[in-house]
Amino acid sequence: MDKKVLPVLAVLLLMLTGCSQTHYRTDGSSGGEARKIAEKERILLKTQNYEALIQQNRELLKKKEDPDVRFRLAEYYYLAGNYNSSLHYLKESLLKSPAARVYLLQGKNLIAQRNYDSALKFINMAAQREPGNAEALNLRGVILANKGELKTAMGAFEQARNAFYPEEKVMNNMALVHIVERRYSQAIQMLLPVYLRGYRDSHFTHNLIFALVKDGDLRYAKEIIKRENLSRYPDTLVSALFEVESNMAPL
């Protein structure tokens, strides 16, 4: 099997959120310097150089306490996969009547650590601050799905979709619930139209291929594998996917 192919069980992954949109402060007496810092951060974020972003914001926070800098530092630690450090830098923010974004980031860290009960509490707090927050609704669905409450999770994803959370991501999450419940044709009905519109994301495409394989459409699954250059050995990959149990997927 090609090295480019993800491990079989990693094919099924809930899409939590995209890269957060960080807001930069460019006001104050040192406006020019702030704009340079903001521009540098945009470039580093675009290249996903989280270590450099962490270092820059650590230096800024060391010089002066700033809630925005503290949040960005915690966010970059999260994006770098250092969830304990992200939680550490969020502690002070949580003590100061935080905005919904702080609760959301706290929740995402806890989801990553599979602490679903605590994560749900913070996501619900974010939703209380901002009723109808699409990201909070999607994350609530992610947590409920991980807890095995699939019917309730589907309802949360529907709410997120109605609140205009990015459709591709929420459709992927809803399709994954169908996959776990072995409703492969319903999953394909959700994923395939989005794929045919030209949307490309590795997790999304892998989930579509998995659903096609489990639904018995091996020909089309191989066609997509070839089109997306996912493996030099489509037959081998399809055979491996066919053997995977849907309920083994980490949700």
Structural summary, described in words:
This protein is 67% helix and 0% strand. The chain has 13 helices and no strands. It has 251 residues and is an all-alpha fold. It starts with 30 loop residues before the first helix and ends in an 8-residue tail after the last helix. It is globular. α2 packs antiparallel against α3, α7 (134-146) runs antiparallel to α8 and α9 runs antiparallel to α10 (184-196).
**Main beta-sheet annotation:** none
Portion in strands? under 5%
Q: What is the CA-atom radius of gyration, in angstroms?
A: 20 Å
Count, helices = 13
| Mean pLDDT reading | 87
Give the low-pLDDT segments. 1-12, 17-21
Helix amount, in percent? 55-70%
Order of helices and strands: HHHHHHHHHHHHH
Q: How many β-strand stretches?
A: 0
Structural class: mainly alpha
How do you describe this structure in short?
By secondary structure, the protein is mainly α. It contains 13 helices and no strands.
